[in-house]
TrEMBL record:
Amino acids binding FMN: 85-87, 114, 136, 164, 232, 254, 287-291, 310-311
Known cofactor(s): FMN
Residues that coordinate or bind glyoxylate: 138, 173, 256, 259
Upper taxonomic lineage: Eukaryota, Metazoa, Chordata, Craniata, Vertebrata
Protein name: (S)-2-hydroxy-acid oxidase
Protein family: Belongs to the FMN-dependent alpha-hydroxy acid dehydrogenase family.
Gene Ontology BP term (one): fatty acid alpha-oxidation
The gene coding this protein: HAO2
Length: 361
């Protein structure tokens, strides 16, 4: 039976993957309230929700030629649906991030490669040379190591640097604790070492995240690269205003898929506040909870320039590698195309807040 929606891929991946791997991918922090709310916030079916987001379609409009294309940081993509940084793709498919990169290139969308990639950056770049790639960085306590890594990705053709800001330390992920997950037993990270060294460093033999990084350190990052810098993990107007003050190029509104601090806002609920705070001075994106084309439309109506998919990409990878990721992207792109047509939009530029309304439950 063909898989028809993103949750079909979720069900397949759950059956196929070992329990510890599934729990690592799906698990949230603490009670996983925020993980679940990311999805529920688009539909507002939880009894605790005060409002739900609904679409306001306009009819008798010519939608013969619906154009889903848009741009991010000046680069054209086929639809405002791209791939979030997630680590350890080799856990779910042998070719790991190389398969993901090829699928993103074929789909004409951006792929943010994680610091915790399990394929070498050179291999990822070589396997999809025409793909639009950004690189997600966890700043290492050894700043020289981070500098070398940033300059390396720039030389490999990555087009932006995404700094994850919501991990000064790892969240309390109970599933991984119960499973006694130890990634160093079967995974070696290929990129957290000097380019002159060809040996890899085991994940947990390092202290890979610098918990001291603060706003003033952004000027150092800006001094070592010409790449635009995007901050991932912003949820408040105060931090959005600071991002503007520090000349950042973009924000990804995100709560890390509910894997870091539980009981924070769902990403979609934080979006409007951040969009209002930046006052059009930078692009704002969103990840967390996107599962349908309607979800994409709602996020764009609330001011997101583009959305990024995390877990659904891993479900597709577990299903059929590169082809599975292509299927996931094609399904949600087609759903988004349908959503645009059925709400009367010919182009992404026409999507605006008048297309949604908030109704009380």
């Amino acid at each position: 039976m063909p898989l028809a929606c993103l949750t079909d891929f979720q069900a397949f991946a759950r059956e196929r993957l070992p329990k510890s791997t599934w729990d690592f991918i799906e698990g949230g922090a603490d009670d996983s309230f925020t993980r679940d709310d990311n999805i529920a916030a688009f539909k507002r079916k939880l009894f605790v929700a005060k409002h739900r987001i609904r679409l306001r379609p306009r009819y008798l409009k010519n939608v013969v030629n619906v154009d889903t294309r848009t741009t991010i940081q000046g680069e054209e993509i086929t639809a405002p649906i791209c791939i979030s940084p997630t680590g350890f793709h080799c856990l779910v498919w042998p070719d790991g991030e190389m398969s993901t990169a090829r699928a993103a290139q074929a789909a004409g969308v951006c792929y943010i490669t994680s610091t915790f990639a399990t394929c070498a950056l050179e291999d990822i770049a070589a396997t999809a040379p025409r793909g639009l790639r950004w690189f997600q960085l966890y700043v290492h306590p050894d700043r020289q190591l981070s500098k070398q890594l940033v300059q390396r990705v720039e030389s490999l053709g990555f087009r932006a640097l995404v700094i994850t800001v919501d991990v000064p330390k790892l969240g309390n992920r109970r599933h991984d604790i119960r499973n006694q997950l130890d990634l160093k037993l079967n995974l070696l990270l290929k990129d957290l070492h000097s380019p002159k060294e060809r040996t890899s460093m085991p994940y947990f033999q390092m202290s890979p995240i610098d918990s001291s990084i603060c706003w003033n350190d952004l000027s150092w990052l800006q001094s070592i690269t010409r790449l635009p810098i995007i901050l991932k993990g912003i949820l408040t107007k105060e931090d959005a205003e600071l991002a503007v003050k520090h000349n950042i190029h973009g924000i990804i509104v995100s709560n890390h898929g509910g894997r870091q601090l539980d009981d924070v806002l769902a990403s979609i609920d934080a979006l409007a506040e951040v969009v209002a705070a930046v006052k059009g001075k930078m692009e704002v994106y969103l990840d967390g909870g996107i599962r349908t084309g309607n979800d994409v439309l709602k996020a764009l109506a609330l001011g997101a320039k583009c959305v990024f998919l995390g877990r659904p990409i891993l479900w597709g990878l577990a299903y059929k590698g590169e082809d599975g990721v292509k299927e996931v992207l094609n399904i949600i792109k087609n759903e988004f195309h349908t959503s645009m047509a059925l709400t009367g939009c010919q182009s992404v530029a026409e999507i605006n807040q008048d297309m949604i309304q908030f109704s009380r439950l």
